[in-house]
Structures are given as C-alpha cells and as structure tokens.
Design goal:
With 463 residues, this protein is mostly helical. The chain is 65% helix and 3% strand. Strand 1, helix 21 (428-434) and strand 2 (445-449) form a beta-alpha-beta unit. The N and C termini lie far apart (79 Å).
C-alpha cells in the first residue's frame, strides 16, 4: 500500500511542472483551433509573412509600418517571425497559418511562465490559475494570439518580461538582468505601445536592489539596461544612415508630445482615461459591458499598493505601466484605439485578482482563490463565443485548397482570382506563390477560385 506521505510528496514535486505544462497545451489548443480554416491573412499579414519567408540577411532593420505613417523602431518583430517561420514553417508548407501556430505556441509558453511567476510570488496556485484564465481567455487576446501581427508579438514579449521580474529571475546574474531588459525592449521594437510595460520592467530592475540597500547593483542594472537598449537600436541607426531617412519612425509621437509640451494643444487626460476605460471593457469585459471596470481596477490598485508596498518590483510591473499609459496617452493627439492597450491587460488583470484576494482573511485565502478561479472559468464559454467573431477569414481554407489544386496542374498561371467576395486587402495569389508556383504574366491561362474551393480555368483572352 502506497504511503500517503510519499504520495503527497510526489504530488507537490510534480504539480509545479505538470500544471504549467497542462496550461500551455490547453491554451495552445484553444488558440489554434480551426486556424487552418479561418486564418486571418490580409495586407499586413501578407507583407510580414512574405518578409519572413526570405533569408535573415534580407530582413528589414526596422519594424512594420504603423498607421500613423512611421514604423516601429527596431527589427525584433521580424527576427521573431523569421525564427517562427524557420521552426514551424516546414511542417505546414510555409503557409501563413504556420506563423500563427508558432506565435500561439510562444504565447502559451509565456502564459505557463506567468503562471509559475504569479504562483511563486503569491504562494497561491489559485491566484495564478485565475490570472491566466482571465488573461488567456480574454476575447481580443484570444483572437489575435494566433494572428501574424506585431502588437501580438509585442504583448507576448512584454508579458514574458513581466513574468521574469515576478520570478526574480533577474537577480542572480548580470546576464539575466540583460536578458530581461532585452526582452522588454524587444517588446517595444515589436510594438511601440509596449513601452509602458518596458518602463515598469526597467524600473523594477533598479528599485529591486535599492529596496535591499544595494546601490551598486542598482547602478549596474541601470547601466546594463541602457547598454542593452543602445545595442538593440544599432539596426535602427544603420537604417537611418543607409537610407538617409528623415522619419525616425517616431515622428508622430514626437510631434504630439512637442505640441502638447509647447502648449499648442491641451493635455487630453480625460480622453486618455476614457480610452483606457473602453479598452478595459472591450479587451477584458466583452461580450459584457460596464464602464465600472475602471473603478474596479482603480480600487483594487489602491489595495494592491497598500498590500504590496514592501514589494516595489511587483508594483513597478503591475501599477506603473497602467498609470504611465494613462499619463502618456494624454499627450497623444491622434485617436486612441483599444488595441493600443493590449500589452497592459496582464497588469490590469493582476491588479484586480491581487486586489480582491488581498481583502480575503488569511484562513480563507484558499477558498477565496478557488472561488475566483471558478468564477473565471464560468466566464470562458461566453468569451470563447465572442472571440470566434473576431479576426476570422473563412476564405482562407478555400484559397489553400484551390491553390493546391492549381499547383498540381503544373500549368503556369497569369493570375489567380477569387470568384466571390473577399476582404479588400486579401490576395489568393499569395497562397499560390507560397506553395511554390509563380505568376507568369505571359501565361495563356488564369484561374478562378469558386466559393466551394473548385478551380475554373480561363484562357487569358477571356479575362
């Protein structure tokens, strides 16, 4: 008969390994479910995956263009996407959904890391699991987690850096400090909106040794952070010199900040607060509505500030990014879109979970934690249903099936077109070329893809 003490010891030994693994696998399955049927492949995804299909030496030295006519200030997103293509692409004929699968795998691995970090920091597996369920099953986050899109990569890297801070992983060596800083800055290179999370991470790297009275290590960490940022910005500097570019990629941001500081435009603090409220509601509360979520975050933030006042690194990566975002976006003159705040959602969720759990009596902490987890799980079905309405392109499977049929015909094509309505920036010819064929403008035939994945061939003069 098995000794109960040995059984308990075995459970305690393997649970910290098995549970994060289960979380990683479960979230990965949910994120990639049906991706081969409805992968979202529009203009941005076509551009970025086409770049990733090339050799590393031909990757841009800056990130993707932004909608405000600049570009992100470093190539981290393309480095990451290229690595995903190399690892996952060959298994899926280098089709675009391979990028989504790789990105989802990274996202789920980071979720497992964050689970371990919160579990260790709070000493509560219930709080850790509740946090991950609320973050990973957020409808918007779920919908974009397998989407080739730089805000997805930026939020993933920002979440990874946050987890490393909560794990105190950076404390042991200067190398680890540098890696943590590099991940945080790569998040900014991937998506500029992650700068507020990076600010929290860099602050944590400095205040952590300061709370222990170790000024020397604090100064060292500050120097390491500055050095890492400078090193990672070398590609951007080379791009500027080679292209004699007048646009630094941050022209719109600098312009907004300059106009506000100079007094030509007022600080839009009220608009910034309203935008963050809407972002919280849309990114985390959907499909339900309620502006009171801001008050919940603010109230829980006050509780967390008091409860964890002796843990400055935790406050730096949870409260500081949110406060900095509200203050920072008050200087932005353009529209404030909800997705600007996607990298802040882990901090917002942790604020609520830690705030609610902090008011629970010590003896009832496990019960409250379990109740929070049950409540989070009860929200999942509705959130999954809402996520299924976002960023889906059902024509993708049709394009892939028909393109494979055309490739098997081994006939050169002058064009490949869809015979049914498709999104404006989508392009079935891209799938055709990814599968190894070429568009030849002198070819005698062109192919029409029907809505049921059939292919109708036309002579070029029928076009």
């Amino acid at each position: 008969m098995e000794d109960p003490v040995l059984r308990e010891h075995s459970v305690r030994r393997w649970l910290p390994i098995a549970l994060p693994a289960v979380v990683a696998v479960a979230t990965f399955v949910v994120r990639t479910w049906g991706i081969t049927r409805h992968s979202w492949v529009l203009g941005d995804q076509i551009r970025d995956w086409e770049i990733a299909l090339g050799p590393f030496t031909q990757l841009p030295l800056v990130g993707p263009p932004t909608h405000v006519h600049g570009y992100t200030i470093g190539p981290a997103f393309y480095w990451l996407l290229w690595a995903i293509r190399v690892v996952f692409g060959p298994w899926f004929q280098n089709l675009p959904h391979a990028g989504g699968i790789g990105q989802a795998a990274l996202q789920s691995a980071v979720d497992a890391l964050l689970l371990i970090a919160v579990w260790k920091r709070t000493r509560s597996v219930w709080i850790g699991l509740t946090t991950i369920v609320l973050i990973a099953m957020g409808p918007f986050d779920l919908a974009i987690s397998a989407l080739i899109w730089n805000p997805t990569a930026g939020s993933t890297l920002a979440k990874a850096a946050t987890a490393l801070i909560l794990l105190d992983w950076h404390q042991r060596t200067a190398v680890r400090t540098g890696i943590t800083a590099a991940i945080a800055w790569c998040a900014v290179q991937a998506y500029t909106g992650a700068v507020f999370v990076a600010l929290g991470v860099f602050t944590a790297l400095i205040v952590d040794p300061l709370r222990r009275g170790d000024r020397r290590t604090a100064a060292r960490n500050a120097a390491i952070g500055a050095g890492v940022v400078a090193l990672l910005q070398v590609p951007h500097l080379v791009h500027q010199l080679w292209n004699q570019a007048e646009d630094s990629g941050m022209t719109a941001v600098i312009g907004s900040l300059g106009d506000t500081v100079a007094g030509r435009t007022p600080i839009r603090l009220a608009e910034s607060v309203r935008a963050y409220t809407f972002a919280l509601e849309y990114l985390q509360l959907s499909p339900w509505h309620g502006g009171a979520i801001l008050w919940a975050v603010a109230g829980c933030g006050a509780i967390v500030a008091v409860r964890y006042r002796r843990d400055p690194p935790l406050l730096a990566v949870i409260l500081l990014p949110q406060l900095a975002a509200v203050a920072g976006y008050a200087f932005w003159l353009g529209d404030l879109e909800a997705y600007y705040y996607v990298s802040l959602m882990p901090a917002a969720v942790l604020t609520i979970v830690l705030g609610v759990s902090a008011v629970a009596p010590r003896r009832g902490g496990a019960v409250v934690g379990a109740a929070l987890l049950v409540a989070a799980l009860l929200l999942v079905p509705a959130r999954l249903q809402f996520a299924a309405t976002l960023f889906r392109m059902p024509q993708y499977e049709t394009f892939v099936r028909a393109s494979r049929t055309i490739v098997r015909s081994r006939q050169p094509m002058r064009a490949v077109r869809a015979g049914f309505p498709i999104p404006a920036t989508s392009n079935p010819e891209f799938i055709f070329t990814v599968l190894g064929s070429r568009i030849e403008h002198g070819a005698p035939w062109w192919a029409e893809i029907t809505s049921d994945s059939r292919v109708v061939y036309h002579q070029a003069d029928d076009r």
